[in-house]
Amino acid sequence: MAQYESDCLKTFRYDCDISESGQEGLKMAVDNDYCCIILETDLNSAIDGFLICSQIRKQKNIPIIFISDCGNESAKIRAFGVGADDYITKPFSISEMVARVNGHITRYLSIIEEFDKKSARVIEIRDLKIDKDSHRVFIGGNEIIMPVKEYELLLFLAENPNIVFSKEHLFDRVWGIDAMGDTSTVTVHIQRIREKIESASSETYIETVWGAGYRLSDSK
Fold first, then answer.
1. Domain check: are 105 and 22 in the same one?
2. pLDDT number for residue 119
3. Per residue in 68-94, pLDDT tens?
4. Is 139 in the same domain as 89?
5. Residue 43 is part of which domain span?
6. b/e string for 62-95 if b means 16 or more Cβ within 10 A?
7. In sequence order, which residues have a C-beta less than 8 Å from that of residue 177 and are 6 or more positions away?
8. Same structural domain for residues 109 and 146?
9. How far apart are the first and last CA of the chain?
10. What does the pLDDT look like over 22-59, one tens digit per residue?
């Protein structure tokens, strides 16, 4: 069955490795950077799929899909309890399996990409560069001096490009829920940031979405 599933996935240009041994499969899953793991619940091995899943989940956040002959609720609950992301009961259509695999991989890669952006120590959006280690901001190679709150506000928007945030959300995020003041503080700081950026660049970075809030656009 594993070989058949692999052959079908390969027709959709997925690279697949197969292991018939639970111990070997666990080692492969931990040692390699896979985008998705497909597990059988019952294996001809000293360890079953549930134990393998729990061991993988301790070290990795990759999508794990169970395929099983058993469709009862307790088996599904057990699978999700040890960290499974999906559970497919036999018999199933190959198109359904491929669709589920593709959906999980797409979401996983999207999360990884977003995490990489946020964990990067230097953020670059067009001519804007923010060095998180030194708390310095540059436009076209020229440094722009910003007080702490202006920097934190710009950094938050840059870490979440193209997302619209209300003034209330930005105030709570940068100043804190218990801070003194109101959302007009956000308006003032956005204006100051814009003035500093636009004095050094002809491009617009922070956009006002009327009735909704502000966003930092990563495109011209």
1. yes
2. 67
3. 888 888 889 999 999 999 999 888 888
4. no
5. 2-119
6. bbbbbbbeeeeeebbebbeebbbbbbbeeeeeee
7. none
8. no
9. 50
10. 888 899 999 998 999 999 877 666 788 899 999 999 99
